[in-house]
């Protein structure tokens, strides 16, 4: 599993990539910006993927990789 935090907006339709070969496992919005120890900054929520996104996809959607991902 790979977790990505949405740092600029809540996770919603068209705010995250949907690669065909990388299934979305879950989405969690916090309701407001919240400090997340994993990324050492505030985020609106996160999205869990089956595997890592490409750095380009994460960057385009302003997603920050969580530090305690199982893939590391």
Structural class: mainly beta
Task: Round the mean pLDDT to the nearest integer and report it.
Answer: 93
Number of helices: 1
| Helix content bin | under 10%
Q: Supply Rg.
A: 11 Å
Total count of strands:
4
Instruction: Please report which band the strand proportion falls in: under 5%, 5-15%, 15-25%, 25-35%, 35-45% or over 45%.
Output: 35-45%
The major beta sheet can be summarized as:
4 strands, antiparallel
Give the overall shape, derived from the CA principal axes. Answer: globular
Main-sheet strand order equals 2-3-1-4
What is the H/E order? EEEHE
Distance between the termini: 10 Å
Any low-confidence stretches, pLDDT <50, length ≥5?
A: none
What report would you give on this structure?
With 72 residues, the protein is mainly beta. The chain has one helix at residues 55-60, and strands spanning 2-6, 24-36, 41-49, 63-65. Strands 2-3-1-4 form a four-stranded antiparallel sheet. A hairpin with a 4-residue loop joins strand 2 and strand 3 (41-49). The chain is globular and about 30 Å long. The N and C termini lie close together (10 Å). The model has no long low-confidence stretch (mean pLDDT 93).
Characteristic key phrases:
1 helix, mainly beta, about 70 residues, globular, about 10% helix, 4-stranded antiparallel β-sheet
Summarize the structure.
This protein is mainly beta. It has one helix at residues 55-60; strands at 2-6, 24-36, 41-49, 63-65.
